[in-house]
Amino acid sequence: MSSGLTARFHPNLDEIAADEWNALLPDDNPFLDHAFLAGLERHGCLRATFGWRANHLALYAGKRLVAAAPLYLKRNSHGEYVFDWSWAGAYERAGLDYYPKLLCAVPYSPVTGTRLLAGRGEDARELRKALIGTIAAAVEGSGLSSAHVNFVSSADAEPRNGELTDIGALLRQRASDRVSVSVPADPVLLEATVAEELAAAAGNALDNAAAHAGPDARAYVLVEDLGDTVTVSIRDDGVGISDGRLSAAVGEGRFGIAKSIVGRMDWLGGSAKLNTGPGCGTEWELTIPRR
Fold first, then answer.
1. Residue 155 class from Cβ within 10 Å (0-12 exposed, 13-18 middle, 19+ buried)?
2. Which one is the CATH code of 164-289: 3.40.50.300, 3.30.565.10, 3.30.70.3550, 3.30.300.30?
3. What digits encode the pLDDT tens for the residues 262-271?
4. 61-109 pLDDT, tens digit each
5. Do domains 5-155 and 164-289 have the same CATH topology?
């Protein structure tokens, strides 16, 4: 663990202040919000009889919470959306116990997102490493078979030694009879993690268009390599959104996909601009600086 940090495991999330936990979230993913996770515990959705026991990891610098991870001691694989019974069977055939295991995840949800909560500061990478090291140490010599991190986003992954990915190639995978993708002739290479997050944000915009633009709407994706920046535009020719309806949706917390897009772009150090109007379709312009 990093020097000066203290690790504590909490048997219920209400031991951690909601504002301190939520301050570590990189975006507005509702499934990681303190209210959602603590609510599962308070209302009996997570019980020992269901195989769930909270064991949340928190790292403190003095009394200040600086990193955390939603952890659970599991005695089965109920509610994980990961079917690892073959692993459990292999352990049994080898004369070993697969359960209990340590799980870092959002219960009852296959939604991908951050699992290693370290904020957005310059030390976030080192704090994620400290979380991983603490989780590994908790397994060793504790009677736990293993530690698992489910449906993790690429933001939690270690940088892959300068590996580059063509953002155009990732986006071409979304082409269909209703989605047109235009990319430069030459590959647009970005750091792999950046490319995957940018593609995921564009995918969120396409999913939003498919759900709300109308049954006959088409979507158009354009990738522009401007040297110092890369811009991905996602436009549809659907019904659009009126100013009043958009403001109301944001105010009532119903514009979840938009928040996810903005959150991803903020994490990348980029920007997300939305242009829309009734009968004018919707256009997202996602721009990131080259590092």
1. buried
2. 3.30.565.10
3. 877 887 889 9
4. 999 999 999 999 999 999 988 778 878 888 888 888 999 999 999 999 8
5. no
